[in-house]
Specification:
Layout: H1 2-20, H2 23-26, E1 33-34, E2 36-40, E3 65-71, E4 86-90, E5 99-101, E6 109-110, E7 115-121, E8 132-135, E9 147-149, E10 152-155, E11 161-168, E12 171-178, E13 187-194, E14 198-199, E15 201-204, E16 211-213, E17 220-229, E18 243-251, E19 255-256, E20 259-264, E21 267-272, E22 277-278, E23 283-291, E24 296-305, E25 314-317, E26 321-325, E27 330-337, E28 342-349, E29 360-363, E30 374-376, E31 382-383, E32 388-394, E33 400-403
Parallel strand pairs: 2-11, 12-23, 26-33
Antiparallel strand pairs: 1-6, 3-4, 3-7, 4-5, 7-9, 7-10, 8-15, 9-11, 12-18, 13-17, 13-20, 14-18, 15-16, 19-22, 20-21, 23-24, 25-26, 27-28, 28-32, 29-33, 30-32, 31-32
Length: 428
């Protein structure tokens, strides 16, 4: 009898030890803890209000996002039910606002199992979160500001608090038209852009931010406008009257030229960039187009946040032409003063703190020719703490090329070698 009792005890202990080693006991799969969520929108530098865009670092209380949790370990379905594409909205218009389910009783609950949280904006019913349909409208007013969130891993009932940072999926292209030396009425009535780098529809993988462009997309967006007359500053009491059209685009990831199409004084014109561009989600691209006597000319090109300024070749009309050639590790921003036709080039290192080398500046003007240019770019124009270098050009009446030469990786600071000396008002 005692042997039988002893055997029962051994068997019972063996069962208990096996059970204690099971994840089902040590990690409860019963979700009980409510997800505590706040979200940060990427915001915009210039607060566009003519589109359905998020203009701050927080969302309005009417915004709805779709949330999904999966197991961090293998991406499989999380414990319990109601964890896929659940609509949430903020309790207040604030970065620190708590987000709650749109429908009472549909809170995402966490167990001891580690979870990864995915999110996107705006919420759409009955979708595959790896293929959210995205599209831009002929007018920007109705275009949604599609976003995806950086995944938040390792949430559970002991760590249920998450802050998700959102990212823009679309890009913005601004085209500004200047009358310049055009002698006609300069009345615009249609503006469009085209190129393999832009699209109007596709799908967004809200887990990764990857975009798949629709196969049938025409890669062209055209918009009719109310006739608008361009005026030079001389024609308008010292204030230039230019026209700016903004397009929200689906970036394709292809590196290619961009063409702009306009109807000017009843005739159609097309102008194509000399350089290639790769449009990137979350960035704003601004192109200035000058009207010449019988042609169009791309002038200043800027790429700014929604992201960071990026480099690229560009051509700027200062009377003569300025050709700016950059390299991948330098971002370039240009500002043109219409008053005195002074061009300020700001060169930003993509690796913070490493100085931008002095560029090589050349001209097609012959020695002694009265046509030339002035430039200032010595090391007094270098911010040694950030590595940012500023180059100023003015009085340009020849064709000038500014070639950037990369970053100065030496320990002794910037490279002092120059092809062209600093010019103090001289012409050559």
């Amino acid at each position: 009898m005692n042997r039988r009792i002893g055997l029962y005890i051994v068997v019972l202990l063996s069962v208990l030890m096996t059970a204690c080693s099971s994840d089902d006991i040590t990690e409860s799969s019963i979700p009980t803890q409510t997800l505590q969520l706040s979200m940060k929108a990427p915001g915009e530098p210039d607060g566009i209000t003519t589109r359905a865009m998020i203009t701050d670092t927080w969302f309005p209380t009417t915004a709805m996002v779709g949330l999904t949790v999966v197991k961090t370990s293998d991406g499989s379905t999380y414990d319990g039910t109601g964890t896929y594409n659940i609509p949430y909205r903020p309790a207040a218009a604030s970065v620190t606002a708590q987000w709650n389910p749109v429908t009472t009783g549909t809170d995402i609950l966490l167990s001891a199992t580690k979870a990864t949280l995915y999110g996107y904006y705006p919420y759409t019913e009955d979708i595959d979160i790896t293929a959210l349909p995205i599209h831009v409208q002929p007018t920007n007013t109705a275009t949604a500001d599609y976003m995806w969130g950086t995944p938040v891993p390792n949430l559970n009932d002991h760590t249920p608090t998450a802050t998700m940072t959102m990212h823009h999926a679309l890009s913005r292209v601004k085209v500004r038209f200047h009358k310049n030396v055009y002698t006609g009425d300069a009345s615009l009535s249609l503006v469009g852009i085209s190129g393999a780098g832009i699209a109007s529809s596709g799908t967004l993988n809200t887990k990764t931010g990857a975009i798949t462009v629709a196969a049938e997309d025409p890669h062209r967006i055209t918009r009719s406008i109310e006739p608008f007359s361009l005026l030079t500053a001389d024609e308008n009491n010292g204030v230039e009257q230019y026209y700016e059209m903004e397009f929200v685009i689906v970036p394709t990831g292809q590196t290619t030229t961009l063409s702009t199409h306009i109807n000017l004084d009843g005739s159609g014109y097309t102008v194509t960039t000399a350089s290639n561009y790769t449009f990137v989600s979350g960035k704003i691209y601004t192109f200035d187009i000058n009207l010449l006597s019988n042609t169009l000319n791309y002038g200043n090109v800027q790429i700014e946040d929604w992201g960071t300024v990026e480099g690229g070749g560009m051509e700027i009309d200062l009377g003569g032409h300025v050709f700016i050639k950059t390299v991948p590790d330098i971002a370039v921003n240009c500002k043109l003063s219409n008053n005195d036709r002074t061009l300020t080039i700001t060169a930003v290192p993509m690796t913070a703190g490493i100085p931008v080398k002095q560029p090589t500046v050349t001209s097609d003007a012959e020695e002694g020719d009265q046509y030339g240019f002035n430039v200032r770019m010595d090391d007094t124009c270098l911010d040694k703490s950030t590595g940012i270098r500023t180059i100023t050009l003015w009085g340009v009446s020849s064709n000038v090329t500014v070639q950037f030469n990369g970053l100065d990786q030496t320990e002794n600071g910037p490279d002092d070698g120059l092809t062209l000396p600093d010019m103090e008002g001289e012409n050559f």
